[in-house]
Amino acid sequence: MTATSRRCAPALGVHPVYKRIDTCAAEFASPTPYMYSTYEAPFTGAPVSEAEPSTAKKVIILGGGPNRIGQGIEFDYCCCHAAFALKDAGYEAIMVNCNPETVSTDYDTSDRLYFEPLTAEDVLEIIRVEQSNGTLHGVIVQFGGQTPLKLAAALEAAGVPILGTSPDAIDLAEDRDRFSKLLVKLGIRQPKNGIAYSVEQARLVVADLGYPLVVRPSYVLGGRAMQIIRDDDTLSDYLLGTLPELVPAEVKVRYPNDKTGQINTLLGKNPLLFDRYLSDATEVDVDALADGKTVFVAGIMEHIEEAGIHSGDSACSLPPHSLSDETIAILEEQTRKLALALEVGGLMNVQYAIKDGEIYVLEVNPRASRTVPFVAKTIGLPVAKIASRVMAGESLESFDLKAARRDHIAVKEAVFPFARFPGVDTLLGPEMRSTGEVMGLDYDYAVAFAKSQLGAGNALPKAGTVFVSMRDSDKAGIVEPMRRLEALGFKIIATSGTQRFLAEQGIACSKINKVAEGRPHIVDAIKNGDVKLVFNTTEGARALGDSRSMRRAALLHKVPYYTTLSGAVAASLGIEAYATGTLEVRPLQAYFE
User: Which residue has the higher pLDDT, 48 or 468?
Assistant: First the structure.
């Protein structure tokens, strides 16, 4: 059925019927409430539906649909926990999802499962059937990522009750103009920013903000097409090279020979968001629970990579490993203000940047975030379950949540698929690339970091040669890590500029050629197995291009590499802990005894 016919079908009285998937291979009758839709046309009589909606009080949970970068298994975790919690609370939990690889589509996870696409037409048909019997308490759209969130407006317009945070509050957090006004009202800082609905307006906004800046299309997953812009050439490449890839086919057909017209049509409904880029800032993620009256800050995660790396790709620690108690208190207070102002019901995630002691809000998502499973396992509380029951109407106070200080620390590390894609650059940026994550737990930050690296497949060396090449702004910060590795017996090699700087600091260091300087060079050394660790930060298009082959060689030869200063610092601490101590293995439950 085409999109047009789907829109016309209900008005013409054309509705799908639902059939049950036979989980018993026709061996005997299968009453499993596992449904799919069909527009059948029987030879005689009316179409027969096997949905058989119950008389129960029910809640429908919309899943995330197909897994892809930026929206994956973390949201499936939240949907499953919502189903478990709502069943415990006496509701019939109904799951709508279409991904066979997820746990939420197991026939025994929810009370009833509809294996259907996450579109307004399909979901509204399911709601129509379920409302024909029993009571629909409401629909949860905030646990499946951006896919179900996009359906909130259509559901609300159809009079469907949406549980938790209202669609208007969700839109307020995503609408740059409305959200900026809210932050001004609350007295909370944000980076200087602008919004553009056309190519021409984008250039005007950039002229006002100045370089460097971060740009992203609104309403995208995983930071898709998000980029740091540092000069006019990069801006032009982005506007006329990157954006055309996002233009829908129907728009290209409408303006076949007008690339600017295609882009402006796209931006008319999905504008570009520009933020002044906060160089060398510390990024922080905060997850919280709220019910409109009470707010519980579940976790404050300090990113190990600096702001500018997508939060899904950045390693982070919980609790923060370097923030002061005063800074943490301010983060908690600002999070409470935002949750109450947005009247959040359920989960909320806030991304902050801290630069020169000042705190800036980067983004607020009044929904489940990909950090929820990590936070729940670290603090020992079923965050998603509590959120779902709060969304169903229970007060947050009834759970008697208290912020307990734990002795352990958890480090989350991202897992990347780079090795599966020949020619892909491994440099991290604002567009998410990771396809998984691991966590390291210990009572010491350095040991927890080392465990996270081992879990992610980065075998930290205890000895050998480390290669280091740092951009000028990072050279001072790499001195202490190099001293740490030198004391452990590592041999240090570096490109000419970094080698001279380290030698001036009294660190023994040998020079090695860049690839452009001729052989023998760093890529040869990596391929020969002479290098066990790589620290490399770059800036500018030429430097990025020159170092690409080195990053690729490190990846293919399984040499741990770090492309940020903060990552290099953390790695040196982890190697020290790994080389001088022992890594104890404990079950997760042991940290809560």
Answer: 468
